[in-house]
Write a structure and sequence with these properties.
This protein is mainly alpha-helical. The chain has nine helices and no strands.
Length: 196
């Protein structure tokens, strides 16, 4: 997470974190469906409008690190060393994300998400957004249109690798298994030689 530099930015970041922490605590204590936006705002001692200035929807309160997830994937593409291959850089980033999301302390949040149809639906739409951002980053790196089928396909495979690994008995092994297939697909595409 990038540290806010000015006093105002730090205060906004602290308020955002306080709201997210409060919401997650309430959701875990009472259940997602039994906690309303007004409950979260009251407990966090903020106005409902303040809550919505930080989070667009109730579901977003559970996924407060969503932007960091997406930035990490995009940085894995854009911040590679010259000549560093794309797929291993993405594999390394997905391994880190999976380790974070499968750590024992993440289990209660994962259970909360799995138990709520609204949260599962939101997570799926979030994954599609991440795939679009990743595809755009890959395409920009290659200098091809962001509608490139190869870029969009690889991006979706990467997001699916993360999702499948989080559900696997051996998450690290699952990442490696899926990435072997991703690498083969990437090597077979017309774009791979441009990104070596």
């Amino acid at each position: 997470m990038i540290e806010p530099s000015g006093r105002r930015e730090r205060k906004k970041a602290a308020t955002r974190q306080k709201i997210a922490d409060t919401a997650l605590r309430l959701f875990l204590e009472r259940g997602y469906d039994d906690v309303g936006i007004r409950d979260v705002a009251a407990e966090a001692d903020v106005a409902v409008t303040t809550l919505f200035s930080h989070f667009a929807a109730k579901e977003a309160l559970v996924f407060e690190r969503d932007q960091g997830f997406e930035r990490g994937l995009v940085r894995a593409v854009a911040d590679r060393a010259p000549g560093e291959p794309l797929i291993p850089a993405l594999r390394q980033e997905v391994h880190a994300l999976v380790r974070h999301c499968t750590a024992p302390e993440a289990a209660p949040v994962r259970s909360l998400i799995v138990s709520s149809p609204a949260l599962r639906e939101y997570e799926e739409s979030m994954r599609m957004r991440h795939a679009d951002a990743l595809a755009a980053a890959i395409a920009a790196d290659l200098g091809v249109p962001d509608t490139s089928t190869a870029c969009r396909t690889i991006a979706r495979f990467v997001i699916d690798a993360y999702a499948l690994a989080c559900e696997a008995a051996e998450p690290g092994d699952a990442v490696d298994e899926v990435f072997r297939m991703i690498e083969a697909a990437w090597d077979a595409s017309r774009l791979a030689p441009r990104l070596s």
